[in-house]
Amino acid sequence: MRIGELATRAGVSVRALRYYEEQNLLAAERSPSGQRHYPDGAVDRVRLIQQLYAAGVTSRSIADLLPCVVDGQATPELLDRLSAERDRIDRQIGDMVSARDRLDTVIAAATANWRTGQRCRPE
Q1: What is the pTM of this model?
Q2: Which residue, of 39, 86, 94, 117, has the fewest CB within 10 Å?
Q3: Buried (b) or exposed (e) across 67-106, using 16+ Cβ within 10 A?
Q4: Could you tell me which residue ranges the HTH merR-type domain spans (predicted)?
């Protein structure tokens, strides 16, 4: 498939796909006229890249991880790095849950105050 079709199917911009190529996260074959052509599996690969970026994984770590996803090969060092990334994501999830819980408390208090006619005052 061509770059525009991959962008549409994966829900990303053409610019993002070009960036992934620059970072060696995605590869395309070139036609004689220079057009990029991607295999059908590229959609899943782009979605995985997007998920990992959204989780805060660096492009270098993603580049190291992708061969493991494709062929299942990993060194002990890479497994340690991946475990550390997972632990970092777990900490972020915990921090976000804590922030959400604090917001819930503030919203509940503000709602109760609003119903009784009290207003929040900036400090």
Answers
A1: 0.68
A2: 117
A3: eeeeeeebeeeeeebbeebeeeeeeeeeeeeeeeeeeeee
A4: 1-68
The CB density around residue 28, as the number of other CB atoms within 10 Å, is 19
Strands (E), 10-121: 29-30, 36-37
Q: CB pairs under 8 A, 24+ apart, for 96-105?
A: none
- Residue owning tokens 């997972």: 86
Q: How confident is the model at residue 113 (pLDDT cuts 50, 70, 90)?
A: confident
Domain residues of the chain, as ranges? 1-73, 75-123
The number of residues in the chain equals: 123
Half-sphere exposure at residue 40, Cβ-oriented, CA atoms within 13 angstroms: 0
pLDDT band per the 50, 70, 90 thresholds, residue 70: low
